[in-house]
Design goal:
Helix content is 35%, strand content 10%. The chain is α+β, with helices and mostly antiparallel strands. α1 packs across α2. The chain starts with 6 loop residues before the first strand and ends in a 6-residue tail after the last helix.
């Protein structure tokens, strides 16, 4: 059987916790759930980072912080 890449995109760029309380928008929420996504079979994480007001941001420092937290929680197995 050929390998399969199963992506997960858990939060999108626009929805907030006002839309659904379980959308992971903080670094902690994303990192906390990363291992469970990996364990469920995901191999690729499509990631959107938010600022303190839950708006989409391209802030490099926030991406580095979140990716480091994902690695600490889920290891190197997820492609981010």
């Amino acid at each position: 059987m050929d390998p399969i890449i199963l992506p997960i995109a858990p939060n999108g760029a626009r929805k907030t916790t006002d839309d659904h309380p379980n959308i992971p928008v903080t670094t902690e929420a994303i990192a906390t759930q990363a291992a469970s996504w990996r364990d469920a079979g995901a191999s690729l994480l499509h990631l959107h980072i938010r600022d303190d007001q839950q708006h989409h941001t391209l802030d490099v420092a926030r991406y580095r912080e979140t990716i480091a937290a994902i690695r600490a929680a889920a290891g190197e197995e997820l492609i981010v």
